[in-house]
Amino acid sequence: MYFDPLYFVFALPPMLLGLWAQFRVKSAFNKYSHVRTNSGINGAQAARKLLERGGLGNVTVEATRGMLSDHYDPRHKALRLSEEVYSLPSIASVGVAAHEAGHALQDKTGYLPLQIRSIMVPAVSIGSNMGPIIFMVGMFMAGTLGTTLAWAGIILFAATALFALVTLPVEFDASRRAKELLVSQGIVSPAEMQGVNAVLNAAALTYVAAAAQAIMQLVYFLTVMNRRNS
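^ that's the sequence the OP posted. Answer follows.
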């Protein structure tokens, strides 16, 4: 199991895609974090403006530590931006901030994929960690008990793959909202959208890579089970 060459057939392509996606995100963000917005608006101001425009005055905009640690917290109605995104008036900053504001707007309108993803979080936190372990334990055990455990691990991990798939429309829709609002609210000009697109499209690729990794690992587990049963 630990040195199964077949594993790398499934794992290597999405892993390389993930590395490429991370490179693109860092490259695009570093480039456009040095390009100032013509409006002079920073990430925090952009987020606040979009939230107010969407009737979300109750959502707070806070600075948080960690590079690209930006996220929207639906439980506390808080939009948390990394320090660089929060304070800098750059194309990259307003693009990321607008994306996170897009999640807040999804929450307000009851966007179904976001609701499904939120419900799945507890199961995914268990399945992503315990699923592969239970699967491996089951594979090393003989008999019906081993097979049952292996299938239990697969089912748990399947929640992780499903979560990654549900995440895709959530992230794509948030970026779509961000791009539309940035121009319509005068935060960036149409000419500046090239930089926004570069940053947000690169970020979207990371979610595609994560989904590919989860799905390919699930397919690998199923392939191993098929070989065991054949």
